[in-house]
């Protein structure tokens, strides 16, 4: 009887235990489903909030871009001189009105006086026929009052969204004034420039740029879940930018819930079968191990895989490719200009930029692709696909287009680019380390070719890299042992044809191999950091030789790497002092590349050099992204026209017209002009007629050693003395 009772008790205990386990599993399953539902709702909210922040940032950027262009046109000495001229209407039409045709910057330009009288009004390149009070909503005058009495008197401008006859536009109003902010006009005679850029036809561009599917502008009053209001200065909502929720959480939940219920049921049965303390402990240990493993391969800042995680994922992808007879594509990306953002705004801004870039990449990569952050500003994308090279290059183009628009980080607008190297493992035959090495080489090739582009690896890149490494090693030795030489090319006065200055150039002859072109070893020096000791060597040699040449000006090219060095101005001062050279005899020539990448730091470096008394020349003008803005912003002492603009001036009417416009621009800014590459007397004659005051080229002398240049200067002095004696006799 007792045994039966014991068996009954044990059976009851087991049944109770099993029932408890089943109940626990069911409760746990319900809890998990509920938690997943909450996670999916949270994911939906996060995605909607990201889209809202992105859209809000896009609107702010839209207005900010208009304001930047308005400031450039309104705070302009030429505008002040012509707009306040009683006969300046034609100038305003040419420089404001005509610029509205097919312009991505603004499509309406209006000039009014302080009494709200319209002096000029253009839209899409044509005179505006609708009166201003009828074209703009009344809130335009709120904006006008803000510009008339600005919070910051130094910036008499205001901008906001305004409703117009043509739709909704970002509108800016600014006082027409000198660039310095001064204006010699009474308040009742002042003129104001109005720019408008309509938003209606730009919404699709915003959607494409910021990857917001279904973004559209609506003026309907119906309630919508996802929108960013467009306000006018009176606080009225003009319209809403709205988009449909992508609901990623709901999609994930619907995919997971059925499988989760089945998995939980199976788990419950298995748990009943193997319900022991040992199993629970083993599971706990395995869970801890997996969490630690996952943490070891995750980048904490971006949440992406780190370098170790990338190699582990690549190994898996290569194994998959071998089995599927497919290929593995790897894109290796390095951000261009990231260091400048860190230096200018701090590492906090840099971290936020990394997060923004990471979020953008997540939206751009194909499904199933691996995304990793492998360094400070380096990323990698890998995926499996048959014949993957075309798809990889297409993805690279999409990523490059993504960087065309600036990023808004807090209240700052920052611009960076990227260089991309692409490599592939055909049918998984290339291991992960070699694949990364090849993609890295291709990425550096993209940087060498000008950045902001993508290159596909090929075998010749390895031989090029080996050649560069060998060249770097020999160049380092040559600089240390001062085995390079400097030569000097004379520049002559266009009026007297006498030598007025010389340009210093460096030459290198490799032992047992002969001369190496500067076009070859200078880029190697810039890429490897040798350009700084090389530049100092050239500057020292130039100053040492020039102290024997009277008042001849010496010109030395400097690299952006040197300009970035905060101690460069101190080094220049030391060299001038040791050589006993007046700072005014030294002209440092630089190109626009660094000015474009980091105008603020470049301006600071140039100011430090000019404080020494050194002259600064803008070299190779006309060969790249030449900008009037740079000439006005940096206060150059001389403009050097690139040889590409001189080559055809004696055979091409178009080339002569471009040259005349360039020299006229320089004269208007008070800049003397040097023309490079003069090889024919016909070219020299045209250059003199156009107003160039200094000429350089083989017509007047090739680069020569210091001793030969000294002879040229002595002979020239003797000739001048003889002429004076004959005249006095």
What is the topological layout?
Blueprint: H1 2-74, H2 77-83, H3 89-97, E1 108-113, E2 118-123, E3 126-127, H4 132-135, H5 140-148, E4 157-164, E5 167-175, E6 191-198, H6 203-210, E7 216-218, E8 227-231, E9 237-242, H7 248-273, H8 277-296, H9 307-324, E10 327-336, H10 338-345, H11 347-364, E11 370-373, E12 378-385, H12 388-402, E13 407-409, E14 412-414, E15 417-425, H13 432-448, E16 454-456, H14 460-480, E17 485-493, E18 499-510, E19 514-516, H15 518-528, H16 531-546, E20 553-557, H17 560-564, H18 568-579, E21 586-590, H19 593-597, H20 599-611, E22 615-621, H21 628-634, E23 638-641, H22 643-646, H23 653-668, E24 673-675, H24 681-690, E25 694-696, H25 706-728
Parallel strand pairs: 15-16, 18-20, 20-21, 21-22, 22-23, 23-24, 24-25
Antiparallel strand pairs: 1-2, 1-6, 2-3, 4-5, 5-6, 7-9, 8-9, 10-12, 10-15, 11-12, 13-14, 17-18, 17-25, 18-19
Helix pairs in contact: 1-7, 10-11, 14-15, 16-18
């Amino acid at each position: 009887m007792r045994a039966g009772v014991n068996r009954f008790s044990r059976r009851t205990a087991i049944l109770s235990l099993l029932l408890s386990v089943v109940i626990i599993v069911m409760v746990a399953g319900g809890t998990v489903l509920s938690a997943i539902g909450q996670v999916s709702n949270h994911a939906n909210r996060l995605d909607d909030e990201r889209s809202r922040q992105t859209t809000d940032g896009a609107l702010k950027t839209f207005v900010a871009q208009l304001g930047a262009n308005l400031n450039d046109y309104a705070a302009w000495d030429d505008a002040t001189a012509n707009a306040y001229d009683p006969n300046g209407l034609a100038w305003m039409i040419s420089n404001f009105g005509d610029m509205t045709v097919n312009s991505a910057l603004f499509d309406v330009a209006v000039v009014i006086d302080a009494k709200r009288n319209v002096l000029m009004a253009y839209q899409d390149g044509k005179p505006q026929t609708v009166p201003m009070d009828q074209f703009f909503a009344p809130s335009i005058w709120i904006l006008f009052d803000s510009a008339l009495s600005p919070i910051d008197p130094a910036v008499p401008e205001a901008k906001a969204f305004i409703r117009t006859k043509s739709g909704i536009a970002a509108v800016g109003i600014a006082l027409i004034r000198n660039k310095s902010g001064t204006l010699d006009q009474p308040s009742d005679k002042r003129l104001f420039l109005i720019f408008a850029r309509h938003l209606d036809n730009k919404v699709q561009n915003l959607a494409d740029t910021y990857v917001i599917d279904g973004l559209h502008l609506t003026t309907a009053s119906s309630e919508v879940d996802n929108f960013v209001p467009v306000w006018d200065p009176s606080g009225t909502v003009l319209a809403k930018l709205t988009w449909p929720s992508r609901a990623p959480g709901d999609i994930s939940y619907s995919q997971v819930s059925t499988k989760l219920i089945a998995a939980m049921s199976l788990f419950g049965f298995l748990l009943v079968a193997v319900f022991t303390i040992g199993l629970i402990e083993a599971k706990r240990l395995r869970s801890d191990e997996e969490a630690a493993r996952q943490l070891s391969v995750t980048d904490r800042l971006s949440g992406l895989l780190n370098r170790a995680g990338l190699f582990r994922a690549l190994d898996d992808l290569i194994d998959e490719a071998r089995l599927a007879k497919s290929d593995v594509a790897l894109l290796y990306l390095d951000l261009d200009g990231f260091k400048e953002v860190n230096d200018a705004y701090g590492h906090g801004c840099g971290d936020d930029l990394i997060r923004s870039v990471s979020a953008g990449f997540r939206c751009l990569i194909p499904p199933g692709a691996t995304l990793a952050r492998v360094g400070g500003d380096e990323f990698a994308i890998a995926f499996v696909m048959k014949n993957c090279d075309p798809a990889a290059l297409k993805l690279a183009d999409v990523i490059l287009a993504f960087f065309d628009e600036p990023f808004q980080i807090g209240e700052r607008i920052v611009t960076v680019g990227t260089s991309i190297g692409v490599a592939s493992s055909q049918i998984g035959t290339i291991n992960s380390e070699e694949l990364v090495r090849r993609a890295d080489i291709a990425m550096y090739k993209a940087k060498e070719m000008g950045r902001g582009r993508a290159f596909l690896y090929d075998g010749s890149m390895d031989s090029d890299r080996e050649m560069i490494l060998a060249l770097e090693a020999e160049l380092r030795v040559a600089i240390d042992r001062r085995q390079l030489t400097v030569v000097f090319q004379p520049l002559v006065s266009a009026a007297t044809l006498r030598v007025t200055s010389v340009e210093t150039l460096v030459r290198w002859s490799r032992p047992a191999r002969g001369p190496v072109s500067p076009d070859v070893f200078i880029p190697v020096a810039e890429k490897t950091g040798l350009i700084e000791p090389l530049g100092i060597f050239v500057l020292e040699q130039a100053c040492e030789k020039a102290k024997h040449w009277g008042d001849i000006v010496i010109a030395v090219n400097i690299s952006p790497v040197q300009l970035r060095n905060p101690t460069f101005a101190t080094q220049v001062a030391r060299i001038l002092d040791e050589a006993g050279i007046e700072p005014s005899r030294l002209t440092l020539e630089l190109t626009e590349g660094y000015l474009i990448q980091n105008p603020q730091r470049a301006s600071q470096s140039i100011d430090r050099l000019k404080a020494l008394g050194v002259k600064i020349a803008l070299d190779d003008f006309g060969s790249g992204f030449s900008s009037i803005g740079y000439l006005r912003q940096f206060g150059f002492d001389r403009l050097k026209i690139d040889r590409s603009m001189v080559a055809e001036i004696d055979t091409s009417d178009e080339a002569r017209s471009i040259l005349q416009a360039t020299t006229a621009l320089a004269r208007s800014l008070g800049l003397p002009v040097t023309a490079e590459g003069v090889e024919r007397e016909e070219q020299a004659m045209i250059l003199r007629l156009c107003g160039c005051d200094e000429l350089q080229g083989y017509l007047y002398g090739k680069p020569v050693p210091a001793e030969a240049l000294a002879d040229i200067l002595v002979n020239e002095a003797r000739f001048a003395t003889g002429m004076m004696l004959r005249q006095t006799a």
